[in-house]
């Protein structure tokens, strides 16, 4: 039986790079184009997960566990961010009855 | 390491699979529409709710308490991922690793005690 | 190191102190905790050591910046009297979150591994998202929290992608190993990946410290956030961000110098111009202070571009003097706006007649921010410009001095309003602790301006 890194390495590293860059760009596009706060938030999570994929594939190609450790930390931090973020979005929904970011325009010069 | 060479031809099975899946869905939906009997009435078109009449709108606000519980679950759930690497390397890390994990769990427990004392998990 | 552990433990203790009946004990307790941390922090002075398998290194750089940040939190807290008097039920949480975020800030200045830098930034940022939205019923606070959250986590994503590419190129998160990789990149074909990674990291960090052209969230967030926490954002968060940035560009990417240097210089000039011009056209004092914090990030970035023997000390001195002046300015704003409802310049009209102390403290702070001689701000800019001239960037200094001239206009608008206009309201009530703090801050500013040598040769 092959080792897991070897199985991963049967696909060239470039493909992982392209896939995670594509995911990342989809996330960025979503953040820039969508208006619903929750969907923007999902796009940010997509960006973070693209990074996770990239880190794991680099880690497997270099046989270096550091990248996977970083992924653990990113997941934990992303969970904390989601909790705070959803709490903030719920707070706004209670005040505005909507999560459309364009309704938030109290702050302007 | 020798890199495998891939050609577009290698992806043919995946495309066939996609086509087969999409084709089956289209086929099944089309056939049921064509040959299934259709009877419209007030009772038939209503949403089915265990035989009793439907009550209210499905999009009612859900109690805030579910939200708090769910969020707390996400936090405590994710913190567990730090235990997997520790569990795998339990013997190598030895006493020091054990003490560090005790500290980590102690901090988590402090948060848990705080949440309980704050009354977040009280249902009523 | 001890300071990180102590701050975490004290933060937890403080959370549980919040269950007591009276919230009178919280403020003294937090001040005592911070005093202990401030003292313990100096145990590591001249005793550099690394902890947790080279994850953190506590050297003099880390100790000095930690001291500045702990001090600024201790200076900010006395202005939280209105929260105590109104019996805010979340007071203990506010204090605890600020202390936890300080842990993140200290990690940002003492990291040895990119993982720790990321964790520090996130601990600090997530705490700040919460604080930005701490006035739950107020729409402006909600909006600030959401904007900060979305922009901040977007920046985190970009920063992380940069880190991932750097890891892919260099194969390590340790900053010494990345530095050794980036200093001999002549033969590797991984250089483009490294360069894209460095660029993305620059963008992400500039987002976090609010440098133009990634500054657009700053005015909105600073204006909507409750004033007490705006003070914290524009002092501690900025200091930590700049110190981390300093360490990053000069400890991690020195080999790629000619690649990122032009980018950083362009960002610096843009930040200076946009910050100062933007501040000049504001009608709200708080929004002006937000743009002013962008401008000061620009001055700090000048020190980053000119790396030599003076720049470390210059950044430290600048951070200290900027912190002292900003805390005083926001402190007066908090006291006045609690009573007079509003944050415009007109609100300060005639303050020199009704509250001479507040007006005096505000004037000293504005002089320091506008870098008038005899105040700390003058020597702060003097040292920064000195290090830039030493590095040969004279034209950058010329731009910066022109922009400082612009800054005098908007800083003195509020001084004019206080002394030249008729009073608009009653005398503003000031409690003893806050008054003492304002006097202390003014004296501190003068000491920094008259004996700058005391603070300048630490590192």
Automatic annotation (TrEMBL), chain A:
It comes from the Bacteria. Pfam families: Oxidored_q2. The chain crosses the membrane at residues 15-33, 38-58, 70-93. The keyword Phosphoprotein does not apply. It is found in: Cell membrane; Membrane. Keywords: Cell membrane, Membrane, NAD, Oxidoreductase, Quinone, Translocase, Transmembrane, Transmembrane helix, Transport. It is a multi-pass membrane protein. It catalyses: a quinone + NADH + 5 H(+)(in) = a quinol + NAD(+) + 4 H(+)(out). Its EC number is 7.1.1.-. One of its GO terms (molecular function) is oxidoreductase activity. Gene3D superfamilies: 1.10.287.3510. NDH-1 is composed of 14 different subunits. Subunits NuoA, H, J, K, L, M, N constitute the membrane sector of the complex. Belongs to the complex I subunit 4L family. NDH-1 shuttles electrons from NADH, via FMN and iron-sulfur (Fe-S) centers, to quinones in the respiratory chain. The immediate electron acceptor for the enzyme in this species is believed to be a menaquinone. Couples the redox reaction to proton translocation (for every two electrons transferred, four hydrogen ions are translocated across the cytoplasmic membrane), and thus conserves the redox energy in a proton gradient. This is NADH-quinone oxidoreductase subunit K. It comes from Adhaeribacter terrigena.
From TrEMBL, chain B:
It is found in: Cell membrane; Membrane. Keywords: Cell membrane, Membrane, NAD, Quinone, Translocase, Transmembrane, Transmembrane helix, Transport. The chain crosses the membrane at residues 12-35, 66-86, 98-116. Its EC number is 7.1.1.-. Its main location: membrane. NDH-1 shuttles electrons from NADH, via FMN and iron-sulfur (Fe-S) centers, to quinones in the respiratory chain. The immediate electron acceptor for the enzyme in this species is believed to be a menaquinone. Couples the redox reaction to proton translocation (for every two electrons transferred, four hydrogen ions are translocated across the cytoplasmic membrane), and thus conserves the redox energy in a proton gradient. PANTHER family: NADH-QUINONE OXIDOREDUCTASE SUBUNIT A, NADH-UBIQUINONE OXIDOREDUCTASE CHAIN 3. This is NADH-quinone oxidoreductase subunit A. It comes from Adhaeribacter terrigena.
TrEMBL record, chain C:
The chain crosses the membrane at residues 25-43, 55-79, 91-108, 114-132, 144-167, 196-217, 229-253, 259-281, 288-308, 314-336, 357-380, 392-412, 433-455. It catalyses: a quinone + NADH + 5 H(+)(in) = a quinol + NAD(+) + 4 H(+)(out). InterPro entries: NADH-Q_OxRdtase_suN/2, ND/Mrp_TM. It is a multi-pass membrane protein. It is an enzyme of class 7 (translocase). The keyword S-adenosyl-L-methionine does not apply. Residues 113-404 form the NADH:quinone oxidoreductase/Mrp antiporter transmembrane domain. It is found in: Cell membrane; Endomembrane system; Membrane. It comes from the Bacteria. Its EC number is 7.1.1.-. Keywords: Cell membrane, Membrane, NAD, Quinone, Translocase, Transmembrane, Transmembrane helix, Transport. NDH-1 shuttles electrons from NADH, via FMN and iron-sulfur (Fe-S) centers, to quinones in the respiratory chain. The immediate electron acceptor for the enzyme in this species is believed to be a menaquinone. Couples the redox reaction to proton translocation (for every two electrons transferred, four hydrogen ions are translocated across the cytoplasmic membrane), and thus conserves the redox energy in a proton gradient. Belongs to the complex I subunit 2 family. NDH-1 is composed of 14 different subunits. Subunits NuoA, H, J, K, L, M, N constitute the membrane sector of the complex. This is NADH-quinone oxidoreductase subunit N. The gene is nuoN.
């Amino acid at each position: 039986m092959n080792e897991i890194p070897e199985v991963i390495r049967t696909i060239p590293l470039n493909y992982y790079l392209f896939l995670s860059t594509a995911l990342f760009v989809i996330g960025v596009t979503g953040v820039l184009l969508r208006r619903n706060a929750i969907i923007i938030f999902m796009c940010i999570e997509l960006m973070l997960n693209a990074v996770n994929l990239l880190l794991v594939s680099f880690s497997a190609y270099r046989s270096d566990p550091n990248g996977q450790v970083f992924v653990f930390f990113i997941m934990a931090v992303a969970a904390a961010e989601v909790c705070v973020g959803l709490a903030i979005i719920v707070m706004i929904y209670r005040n505005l009855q909507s999560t459309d970011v364009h309704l938030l325009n109290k702050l302007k010069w | 390491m020798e890199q495998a060479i891939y050609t577009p031809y290698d992806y043919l099975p995946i495309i066939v699979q996609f086509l087969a899946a999409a084709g089956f869905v289209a086929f099944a939906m089309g056939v049921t529409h064509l040959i299934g009997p259709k009877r419209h009435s007030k009772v038939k078109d209503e949403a089915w709710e265990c035989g009793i009449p439907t009550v209210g709108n499905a999009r009612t606000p859900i109690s805030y308490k579910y939200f708090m519980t769910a969020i707390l679950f996400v936090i405590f759930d994710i913190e567990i991922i730090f235990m997997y690497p520790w569990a795998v390397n339990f013997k190598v890390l030895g006493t020091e690793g054990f003490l560090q994990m005790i500290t980590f769990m102690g901090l988590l427990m402090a948060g848990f005690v705080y949440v309980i004392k704050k009354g977040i998990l009280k249902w009523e | 190191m001890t300071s990180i552990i102590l701050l975490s433990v004290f933060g937890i203790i403080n959370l549980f102190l919040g269950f007591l009946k009276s919230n009178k004990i919280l403020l003294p307790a937090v001040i005592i905790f911070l005093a202990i941390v401030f003292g313990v922090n100096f145990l590591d002075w001249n005793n550099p050591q690394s902890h947790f398998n080279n994850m953190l290194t506590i050297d003099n750089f880390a100790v000095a910046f930690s001291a500045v940040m702990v001090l600024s939190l201790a200076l900010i807290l006395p202005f939280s009297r209105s929260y105590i008097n109104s019996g805010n039920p979340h007071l203990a949480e506010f204090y605890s979150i600020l202390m936890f975020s300080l842990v993140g800030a200290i990690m940002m200045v003492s990291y040895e591994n990119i993982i720790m830098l990321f964790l520090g930034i996130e601990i600090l940022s997530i705490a700040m998202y919460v604080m930005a939205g701490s006035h739950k019923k107020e729409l402006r606070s909600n909006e600030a929290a959401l904007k900060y959250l979305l922009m901040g986590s977007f920046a985190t994503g970009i920063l992380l992608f940069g880190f991932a590419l750097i890891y892919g190129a260099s194969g390590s998160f340790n900053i010494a190993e990345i530095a050794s990789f980036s200093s001999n990149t002549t033969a590797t074909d991984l250089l483009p990946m490294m360069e894209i990674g460095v660029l993305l990291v620059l963008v992400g960090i500039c987002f976090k410290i609010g440098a133009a052209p990634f500054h657009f969230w700053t005015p909105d967030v600073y204006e909507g956030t409750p004033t007490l926490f705006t003070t914290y954002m524009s002092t501690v968060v900025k200091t930590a961000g700049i110190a981390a940035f300093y360490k990053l560009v000069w400890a991690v990417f020195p080999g790629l110098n000619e690649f990122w240097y032009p980018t950083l210089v362009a960002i610096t000039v843009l930040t200076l111009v946009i910050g100062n011009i933007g501040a000049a056209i504001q009608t709200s004092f708080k929004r002006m202070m937000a743009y002013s914090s962008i401008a000061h990030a620009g001055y700090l970035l000048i020190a980053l571009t000119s790396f030599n023997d003076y720049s470390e000390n210059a950044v430290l001195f600048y951070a200290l003097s900027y912190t002292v002046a900003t805390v005083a300015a926001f402190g007066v704003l908090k006291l006045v706006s609690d009573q007079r409802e509003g944050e415009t310049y007109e609100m300060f009209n005639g303050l020199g007649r009704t509250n001479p102390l507040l007006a005096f403290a505000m004037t000293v702070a504005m002089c320091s921010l506008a870098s008038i001689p005899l105040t700390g701000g003058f020597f702060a800019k003097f040292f920064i410009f000195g290090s830039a001239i030493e590095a040969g960037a004279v034209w950058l200094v010329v731009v910066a001095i022109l922009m400082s001239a612009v800054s005098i206009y908007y800083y003195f608008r509020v001084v004019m309003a206080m002394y030249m206009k008729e009073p608009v309201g009653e005398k503003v009530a000031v409690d003893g602790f806050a008054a003492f703090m304002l006097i202390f801050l003014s004296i501190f500013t003068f000491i920094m301006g008259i004996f700058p040598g005391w603070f300048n040769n630490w590192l």
